[in-house]
Specification:
Elements: H1 10-37, E1 42-47, E2 62-68, H2 72-85, E3 89-92, E4 106-112, H3 121-131, E5 132-143, H4 149-157, H5 159-165, H6 175-181, E6 184-193, E7 203-211
Parallel strand pairs: 1-2, 1-4, 2-3, 4-5
Antiparallel strand pairs: 5-7, 6-7
Bound molecules: S-adenosylmethionine.
Length: 213
């Protein structure tokens, strides 16, 4: 495998991440996260946990949390936030495409704004289906390729400069098609908008998928 995580200006991006996303969080993203994570149960693995935006939002039904984050600049911010949360959880510095985690060992996997950024989303989904128990769920919030052809064309045209600016984020991925093509069955999906976001990354999906038992 080539690079294990996409990062064009890692340290600066991680330093600005929470401030850059604040207006979006306040305008509705935090509420979407809370609603999604209310479904998390048992042993949970979160991929690309970033600075830990989801940490305080997990419900009591979560028994154990494993936070996967390969970017050392991000995990440097994640670790103190985790320590302050008092939550029993561990941080694993590894790429989502090669998880050093046992097969069939998690009840829930979580990705929020991550399948846009991992270098290989298909391999990531394969790893998710490997580590989930049969009947386990993937919970997702992802910005995606636009359904509107004119916006999708702009996403294709501006994919490269956007990827550079946004630390490896691909604005034009058809993530729902990739989830559907994996071993997961989509149980629910809402087509929504990322609040206060540039049009290129506004189209959003949020929902859950199950690994057939
Ligand atoms: C846009 S941020 C999202 C952070 C967080 N999930 C959130 O909701 O705010 C994308 C995250 O994916 C991480 N990432 C990049 N490549 C990855 C990989 N191969 N495996 C796992 N995470 C990766 C980045 O380091 C970054 O933390």
């Amino acid at each position: 495998m080539g690079r294990i995580y996409n990062a064009t200006w890692g340290r600066g991006f991680s330093a600005l991440y929470d401030r850059g996303l604040k207006a979006t969080e306040d305008a509705g993203l935090r509420e979407m996260r809370t609603e999604l994570l209310a479904e998390a149960r048992g042993r949970v693995v979160e991929l690309g946990a970033g600075t830990g935006a989801n940490l305080e939002l997990y419900p009591q039904a979560v028994e154990e949390l494993v936070l996967v984050e390969p970017d050392p600049h991000m995990s440097k911010r994640l670790r103190p936030r985790l320590a302050n949360s008092g939550r029993p959880a561990s941080v694993v510095e590894a790429p989502a495409e090669q998880l050093p985690l046992d097969a069939d060992s998690f009840d829930t996997a979580v990705v929020t704004l991550v399948l846009c950024t991992v270098p290989d989303p298909v391999a990531t989904l394969a790893e998710i289906t490997r580590v989930l128990r049969p009947g386990g769920h993937l919970l997702f919030i992802e910005h995606v390729r636009a359904e509107k052809p004119s916006l999708a064309r702009w996403q294709d045209r501006l994919e490269r400069p956007w990827r550079f600016l946004a630390d490896g984020c691909h604005c034009n991925r058809d993530t729902l098609a990739m989830i559907t093509a994996s071993r997961l069955d989509v149980e629910s999906v809402a087509h929504d908008s990322l609040p206060k976001a540039p049009p290129l990354v506004e189209p959003l999906i949020r929902g859950s998928a199950v690994l057939a038992g």
